[in-house]
Amino acid sequence: MEQNEIKFIVDYEAEEVKVSGFSELEGRGGLYVGDGMAMFWGEGWRNHELFIANTQTGKIRKLSTEGGTMLVDDSEIDFKSIEKKCRYGYKNARNKDIRYAAVNRYDCFKKGICAISWMIYPDGRYFEDSDGFGGEDNDVEFVYAIINTNLDIIEPFRPVDDIKKYLEELRSEIG
Question: Could you tell me the superkingdom of the organism this chain comes from (predicted)?
Fold first, then answer.
């Protein structure tokens, strides 16, 4: 489909976006997330889709499938740092598997960048039954990527100790 056929209707007050001319998102509502950007999630709690769109250029990137697979290149994931710091979730990262809480935005686009979060492993309580049996002794494992308004991942998915502080530093460098 030609990009010039894609049209966005943005309600800035309600922070809602509708798109036409892109069949996968036809009729689906999205969220305006700043800097001319919108995000569209899959419908239903088992749908793991995430689309990011630049409403000004008409460019759309699908980051994950409905079935729970990340649609990123290996170069967009820092496997070495994940293997070092995320012992439980490394296999899910290696397989690009979104088994637990999918991908999401950490915050909105500001100064042209946004952090995308990916939970690669839940905390051990996820596996408990009502009596606490089956739980694991581990914390949730998140990795983050930095994406720009051109929909390029400019920093690969990797563990970040304090993503809020890191984003503040990156944005202050931008000016």
Answer: Bacteria
Q: What is the pLDDT of residue 2?
A: 46
Long-range contacts of 14-18 (CB under 8 A, 24+ apart): 17/53, 17/55
CA dihedral 70, 33, 2, 24 (to 10 degrees): 50
**What per-residue confidence (pLDDT) applies to 101?**
65
By three-state DSSP, how is residue 53 classified? Answer: strand
Long-range contacts of 85-88 (CB under 8 A, 24+ apart): 85/141, 85/159, 86/120, 86/121, 86/141, 86/143, 86/159, 88/120, 88/121, 88/136, 88/138, 88/141
136-165 as b/e, with b when 16 or more CB fall inside 10 Å?
eebebbbbbbbbbbebebebbbbbbeebee
> What's the CA gap between 33 and 38, in Å, rounded?
5
What pTM did the predictor assign? 0.86
